[in-house]
Design a protein that fits this description.
Elements: H1 2-6, H2 8-36, H3 38-43, H4 45-67, H5 73-99, H6 113-130, H7 132-140, H8 144-148, H9 158-164, H10 170-196, H11 202-226, H12 250-283
Helix pairs in contact: 2-10, 4-5, 6-12, 9-10, 10-11, 11-12
Length: 284
């Protein structure tokens, strides 16, 4: 019995480290491509491809999760559309506003970026967290999916490149870029360990989610405090005007609230799994 418990540990650690290295190599490639083709980066080509791939992955995971539930075909399609249509409409609205310069601060105008970040959370989070069908999806979906999905956070390393090229203040770019990159690098190893031993790695998965949320909260706070506007309390040597322009603004305006929702859903899923495990344990 003891041999069975101890043998997989070195292999699991090695696999987790390998996943970390793979994510690190992907991060380096992402930075190299953006640094090597600055015109395409400024035009938003790379971020557009990445964003569409992330959206497609989220919606595909939602459909696969629905397929694992006990819902009939009609309810699966309806639920998928109820989530997908608002999600795509929200992305299209933010995208069009970003391209049109709607998030650039205008003198005397209401800043739109805080609204773009907070409004989806105020409206979307209560609906997602209270929905019985979403709860059914979370119960049917492996908990490591929502964690491994956020490997896309390594794309936040682009802030480090912006700092290196003198386009963003280090006061914002360094904590935001480093935090996002770290969360992305740890996503696959954390998901893998949770896959191997859900009970043993429950706390690690919760800690990863908390780290991801703190990273976003810190980045948003520093961004508001350093960007020109009514919330600015710190004036950095390099103005953070890039945060309001396309394609950079798509990260705080769309990906930040998306990531926060995924974190919230992951924490709810982990809590439900822990409660179900405790109930099963007490019943036996």
């Amino acid at each position: 019995m003891s041999t069975t418990l101890t043998r997989p540990m070195p292999a699991s650690r090695s696999a987790a480290i390998m996943l970390f290295v793979i994510a690190l190599v992907a991060t380096i490639c992402w930075l190299a491509v953006n640094a090597g083709f600055p015109e395409l980066r400024v035009a938003g080509l790379f971020s557009t491809v990445a964003r569409l791939a992330i959206t497609a992955t989220i919606l595909a995971a939602l459909w696969v999760g629905l397929a694992r539930t006990q819902l009939d075909g009609g309810k699966r399609i309806t639920t998928w559309l109820v989530v997908t249509v608002p999600f795509l409409a929200w992305q299209a609205l933010v995208w069009s506003a970003a391209v049109a310069g709607g998030f650039r601060l205008q003198p005397g105008a209401i800043p739109m970026l805080p609204i773009a970040i907070l409004l989806p959370l105020v409206i979307g989070l209560p609906l997602l967290l209270r929905s019985r069908r979403v709860a059914a999806i979370l119960d049917a979906m492996p908990p490591y999916w929502l964690i491994g999905l956020q490997v896309y956070r390594i794309l936040g390393s682009i802030f480090l490149l912006a700092y290196a090229t003198g386009n963003l203040a280090g006061l914002f770019a360094l904590p935001a870029g480093t935090g996002d990159t770290l969360v992305g690098l740890l996503a696959l190893p954390t998901a893998y360990l949770l896959y191997l031993a859900p009970r043993d790695n429950h706390a690690r998965a919760v800690a990863w989610n908390i780290l991801g949320i703190l990273d976003l909260v810190i980045a948003i706070s520093i961004g508001f405090l350093t960007a020109p506007g009514p919330f600015q309390l710190i004036v950095p040597s390099t103005p953070n005007t890039l945060l309001g322009t396309y394609p950079t603004v798509m990260t705080p305006a769309f990906m930040v609230p998306t990531s926060l929702m995924l974190h919230a859903l992951s924490l709810r899923q982990l809590a439900r799994r822990r409660n179900q495990t405790m109930l099963q344990g007490s019943a036996t």
